[in-house]
C-alpha cells in the first residue's frame, strides 16, 4: 500500500492497483512517471465521485459547516470476510471500517474505490464517505452502472431521495451561524 499526496488530499493505493494502472498507461503513447500516473488517477476519481451536482453541493456545504477540507481515496481490491468489508493492501486483507475510523475527521471526504460485493454498510463520525454498494470499476462508474452511496455523520446513508432535504438542512444550519 502506497500513500501519495495529491493536490486534493491523499491517495492510498494498493500495489496491485498501481501495477494495473501502469499496464494500462504503458499501452498509451506517452511515458509518465508512476507518481504522475497515480496523481492523474486520483484526480480522475475525485472528479468522478463528485460529478453529481447535489453530492458536490452537499460536500461544499458540509465543508463550510465543519471546516474540514481535502479528500482521501482508498483504491484497492475489496471483498468480504465473515460479514466484514475488507480491502487488499497488496500483502494482507484489512478492514475497510478501520481505515475509515483511522482517517475520519482528517479529511472532508473519504472515497472508497473498493469492491463491496455484499453491500456492507459503514459508519462515519466526522467525514463524509462515498462508497460503492457492490462491485466497483471506474468504467462502470462512468457508465452509471455502479451505485456510489453517500454516508454522513449522525445520518448514515443519505439516499438520492433525501439529498435535497439534507442539503436544505445544511443550508439552514449555515444561515444560523
Write up this protein.
With 177 residues, the protein is α/β, with parallel strands linked by helices. It has one domain. Helix content is 39%, strand content 25%. It has six helices and ten strands. The protein has helices at 15-26, 34-49, 53-66, 96-103, 138-142, 163-176; strands spanning 2-6, 9-13, 71-75, 77-80, 85-88, 93-95, 109-113, 128-132, 148-152, 156-158. The strands form two sheets. Strands 1-2-3-7-8-9-10 form a seven-stranded mixed beta sheet, with helices on both faces. Strands 4-5-6 form a three-stranded antiparallel beta sheet. The protein is globular. The N and C termini lie far apart (41 Å). The model has no long low-confidence stretch (mean pLDDT 91).
User: Which word captures the global form?
Assistant: globular
Number of domains: 1
What low-confidence regions span 5 or more consecutive residues with pLDDT below 50?
Answer: none
Strand content: 15-25%
Strand arrangement, largest sheet? 1-2-3-7-8-9-10
**What is the rounded Rg?**
16 Å
Helical content stands at: 25-40%
Q: Specify the oligomeric state.
A: single chain
- Secondary structure class reads alpha/beta
Question: What is the chain-wise order of helices and strands?
Answer: EEHHHEEEEHEEHEEH
Number of strands: 10
Number of helices: 6
Instruction: Please describe the biggest sheet, giving its number of strands, its sense, and whether it closes into a barrel.
Output: 7 strands, mixed
Q: Determine the N-to-C terminus distance.
A: 41 Å
Task: Provide the residue-averaged pLDDT.
Answer: 91
Amino acid at each position: 500500500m502506497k500513500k501519495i499526496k495529491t493536490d486534493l488530499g491523499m491517495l492510498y493505493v494498493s500495489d496491485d492497483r498501481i501495477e494495473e494502472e501502469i499496464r494500462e498507461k504503458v499501452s498509451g503513447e506517452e511515458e509518465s512517471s508512476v507518481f504522475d500516473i497515480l496523481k492523474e488517477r486520483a484526480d480522475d476519481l475525485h472528479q468522478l465521485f463528485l460529478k453529481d451536482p447535489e453530492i458536490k453541493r452537499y460536500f461544499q456545504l458540509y465543508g463550510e459547516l465543519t471546516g474540514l477540507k481535502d479528500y482521501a481515496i482508498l483504491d484497492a481490491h475489496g471483498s468480504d470476510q465473515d460479514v466484514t468489508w475488507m480491502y487488499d493492501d497488496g500483502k494482507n486483507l484489512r478492514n475497510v471500517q478501520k481505515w475509515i475510523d483511522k482517517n475520519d475527521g482528517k479529511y472532508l471526504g473519504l472515497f472508497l474505490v473498493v469492491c463491496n460485493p455484499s453491500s456492507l454498510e459503514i459508519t462515519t463520525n466526522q467525514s463524509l464517505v462515498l462508497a460503492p454498494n457492490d462491485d466497483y470499476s471506474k468504467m462502470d462508474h462512468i457508465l452509471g452502472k455502479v451505485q456510489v452511496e453517500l454516508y454522513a455523520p449522525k445520518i448514515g446513508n443519505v439516499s438520492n431521495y433525501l439529498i435535497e432535504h439534507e442539503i436544505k438542512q445544511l443550508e439552514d444550519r449555515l444561515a444560523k451561524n
